[in-house]
Specification:
heterodimer, A: about 400 residues, mainly beta, Sulfite Oxidase, Chain A, domain 2, Immunoglobulin-like, 2 domains, 5-stranded mixed sheet, 5-stranded antiparallel sheet, about 30% strand, globular, disordered N terminus, B: about 130 residues, mainly alpha, Cytochrome Bc1 Complex, Chain D, domain 2, 6 helices, about 0% strand
């Protein structure tokens, strides 16, 4: 009998071999890529994505402790989805397990009545909500020239959320401030990997903590849901208009002090030069520095995306977001000729002065070719953006006029 | 040794089984890449899960061979993943010297002084490829 010749002969050995190959290739398909030193790329170009618990795939700058950046398309939503919200921890010992039955928020120090509040206690107090942008001090650091070491964010270390919780001033009033209280410090559940590493503790002036317009709150909800663990479950401090370094995650202790706090993360880290635009030159660093504080005004394109190809002669919708340190956005303008001429954009829904403000415009690329699109915003306080980027040794507070190159064809 | 060829029917079943396993595995991988199923409402979640836990994944890159690679590995990954180093921009020998010194002097990395220069040499070598 002549053996039948089939395109594929499946005997036991072949079956085992091919199933084995399929099993080996599956981890690659499932996205667990490995990046080795041989494939290191210049800052800002690495696109290693990974899923962390309660999160969609985010760009990984560090996995231990997690520093995860939001992919740009999510900024098409006015409120950044919780599962896409960026993540940044300093200390390796981040809380991975919290039991609300035993967790307490402690308030003590220079107060009449130290408190220990449970989540139930907090939820019984009158709640407030505020839409506010949380932006890392070093957002956009990878774009600094010359390079600045640190977390190499592109522009995605930011997010907008509706934060719900208890006003900080209500908590401080409940504890009763003693006379001559100067600052309050905020500490989370995260712990240093070595005793020599300073614990991550930040401080706010007591006037800031008490000011109604500042809307500082202890938030237990983000966009209507409990905080993801990676964004600070069970509660975090929310400091609208201020850089995220103050927004202590997994807040567990508030200590009121009769003097200024001089801990490492206030006195030595997160400091900016005391100069216009927080600017200094690499060879000639500023001699005076101060703690970073309020955010400066920024605006971005969400559409079109960088390097996008657009059809020439057809109208295309431009949109993006703008925000500042709390006076709200007055005006956004865009340019399609590299900044030579500017047009007013339409501003979208006003979710509040601390929130992302959507802007929209329409443009028809007149002919095939490359175009440099730019966007700039002005705040209600008159602050505007500059055409040249600032630079400082920390890579903080970048807010240059943003440009996106597109090709029409 | 004589190997008996499986019958066409057995072959067909084996092929179908392999395709089915492959399809299930692909679906699982795709689901894993695309997102989790929707979560229950917040209030129900709080009541039902007073204790919340996550397990952190890790993916720490391996580093290329180079001078004093071993010194680097034992000194520089106690407090953070090697990925933090892998994602840095190209830095000069002077910049790496300042960073390594800060890790030791400010953050207390337990590195004997004689190893500092060796670590800098390794880090600088990574960019000379």
């Amino acid at each position: 009998m002549t053996p039948q010749k089939l395109p594929y002969v499946l005997d036991r050995r072949a079956w085992l071999r091919w199933t084995g190959v399929a099993c080996l290739t599956h981890p690659l398909i499932a996205g667990c890529g490995r990046q080795t030193a041989e494939t290191l790329e210049p800052a800002g170009t690495s696109d290693f994505l990974m899923r962390f618990p309660e999160k969609v795939a985010l760009r990984v700058l560090n996995d231990r402790p997690p520093c995860l950046e939001t992919p740009w398309s999510y900024f098409g939503e006015d409120l950044t989805p919780n599962e896409a919200f960026y993540v940044r921890w300093h200390l390796q010992g981040i809380p991975t397990s919290v039991d609300l039955r035993t967790w307490r928020l402690k308030i003590g120090g220079h107060v009449e009545k130290p408190l220990e509040l449970s989540m139930t206690d907090l939820r019984r107090m009158e709640a407030v909500s505020v839409a506010a942008v949380n932006q890392c001090s070093g957002n956009s650091r990878s774009l600094a020239v010359p390079h600045v070491p640190g977390a190499q964010w592109r522009n995605g270390a930011m997010g907008n959320a509706r934060w719900t919780g208890v006003p900080l001033r209500a908590l401080l009033r409940r504890a009763g401030l003693k006379a001559k209280a100067v600052q309050a410090t905020f500490n989370g559940l995260d712990e240093a990997p070595l005793p020599s590493v300073p614990d991550f503790v930040k401080a706010l002036d007591i006037e800031h903590a008490l000011q109604a317009e500042a809307e500082v709150l202890v938030a237990y909800e983000m966009n209507g849901a409990p905080l993801p663990l990676l964004n600070g479950f069970p509660v975090r401090l929310v400091v609208p208009g201020w850089y995220a370094t103050y927004w202590i995650k997994a807040l567990s202790e508030i200590v009121v002090l009769p003097h200024r706090f001089d801990g490492y993360w206030m006195a030595k880290a997160y400091r900016i030069p005391v100069t216009a635009g927080a600017n200094e030159t690499p060879g000639k660093l500023a001699t005076k520095t101060e703690p970073i504080g309020r955010m400066n005004v920024r605006s971005f394109f969400v559409r079109p995306a960088a390097e996008e190809r657009l059809p020439a002669g057809r109208p295309c919708e431009l949109n993006g977001v703008a925000f500042n340190g709390g006076t709200g956005i007055k005006k956004v303008q865009f340019s399609t000729d590299g900044g030579a001429t500017w047009m007013d954009a339409r501003l979208g829904d006003d979710l509040g002065r601390y929130s992302f403000r959507r802007w929209r415009g329409e443009w028809t690329p007149p002919a095939a070719g490359e175009y440099r699109l730019q966007v700039r915003a002005a705040g209600n306080d008159g602050e505007t953006q500059t055409a040249t980027a600032n630079w400082n040794r920390g890579g903080y507070m970048r807010n240059v006029i943003e440009e996106v190159k597109v090709t029409a064809g | 040794m004589v190997t008996s060829r499986p019958s066409p029917r057995t072959r067909g079943v084996a092929i179908a089984l392999t395709l089915l396993v492959g399809a299930i595995a692909t679906a699982v991988a795709y689901w894993g890449m695309c997102g989790e199923p929707p979560m229950p409402q917040p209030s129900a979640r709080i009541a039902a899960t007073p204790a919340r836990s996550i397990v952190l994944p890790h993916d720490e890159p391996e580093f290329a061979p180079g001078p004093h690679r071993q010194t680097f590995l034992v000194s520089c990954t106690t407090c953070h993943s090697s990925r933090l180093i892998a994602t840095q921009p190209p830095l000069s020998s002077q910049q790496w010297t300042e960073i390594v010194h800060k890790m030791i002097a400010v953050y207390g990395a337990p590195v004997p002084p004689q190893n500092e220069a060796e670590i800098v040499e390794y880090l600088t070598s990574l960019r000379n490829e």
